[in-house]
């Protein structure tokens, strides 16, 4: 395969992935996961918390991102994520604790609007981490 | 002959000043390290965000969001970011000068100001400028949430058509010894030139939702970055200024000490001559 994808992943804290050439990128889109191959049509999507990965030959690099945006233009993928962690950086126990805490928070009946959404996001983030870790 | 005690006192006072400037330099150095790290991590995200935004805006329908409204109108809001404290060389005066220059160059426009930082306020409040709002004491504990707040406020002003254009004026951190005053258009967003290549994007979920969401975040990111740039620049400028001050103080102490010693020597010589002369006179 001659054509490659160039990807960049940045978060407000740091540049996580800078310009490796890869064969495929998998993005957790808001309406479902997407696999991006070279020569993909221009695309702009909102991301949900979930598993983000890219493939380079046989090598697969996996990360967990929490919400953000991804843009695909002319074989260049730009990802703006709220946060991103490599799989090996994820601590299972901590993610589990976060999940329990988020569930507890959600069970409170008086949660409304923004607070509810925030708690929900927290749960999704924790679940995304756990799931990705499990499939490892 | 100059009074020796006065010279001594002078030396002592310069020494005190030197100690102070040295301490300030050290404090600035450590604050600078922190601020520098903050700006270096925030920059890539902000720049990517701007790229993406530009791509998007160039390809979107301009009437999809009120923040993209390029309307005719001559009301301009300048967001001027200065420091709360002085003693940092030309840092504050450079920014103020730039703002003033912009105002005098554009007399045909109706310019109002949003001032961040006490030093800017000190300058502008006693002059005939219209100050829309101010944000003082920000340098102590600036955080992301504050940028969100300012972003919302500015967006509100723009959407309610109280202003037609918003610029950020701030010091960009080039290196520890170098800052550059930057003027940047914040709103409406300037689309990148794309020529005829208007490829249609696939949007998920849809253009409008993405734009609304992204615009908000874009504003915050740019404002946040501008403040961080300014903060790092300020500490850099103060460090350089205090370093120069310490050096000058040292030089001055050297000169004064030399002068003190010479004078003392002259005193002694004079006294010796007097004694010798007195003895001669008695002998005779």
What descriptive keywords fit this protein?
heterodimer, A: 136 residues, ATP Synthase, domain 1, Single alpha-helices involved in coiled-coils or other helix-helix interfaces, 2 domains, 8-stranded mixed sheet, 2 helices, B: 284 residues, alpha/beta, Pyruvate Kinase, Chain: A, domain 1, 5 helices
What does this structure look like?
The complex is a heterodimer of chains A (136) and B (284). Chain A is 28% helix and 46% strand. By secondary structure, chain A is α+β, with helices and mostly antiparallel strands. Chain B has two domains: 4-19 and 244-283, ATP synthase, gamma subunit, helix hairpin domain (Helix Hairpins, Orthogonal Bundle); 30-241, ATP synthase, F1 complex, gamma subunit (Pyruvate Kinase, Chain: A, domain 1, 3-Layer(aba) Sandwich). In chain B, helix 2 (91-105) links the parallel strand 1 and strand 2. Chain B is elongated and about 115 Å long. Classes of the chains: A alpha+beta (136), B alpha/beta (284). The interface between A and B is medium-sized, with 21 and 23 residues. Strand 5 (43-47) of chain A pairs parallel with strand 6 (202-204) of chain B, so a sheet runs across the interface.
Could you write a compact summary of the structure shown?
Chain A contains 2 helices and 8 strands. The model of chain A has no long low-confidence stretch (mean pLDDT 84).
- Per the principal axes of the C-alpha atoms, what is the gross shape of chain B? elongated
According to CATH, what is the topology of the largest domain in chain B? Pyruvate Kinase, Chain: A, domain 1
Give the oligomer, counting copies of the same chain as homo and different chains as hetero.
heterodimer
Please give the alpha-carbon distance between the first and last residues of chain B: 30 Å
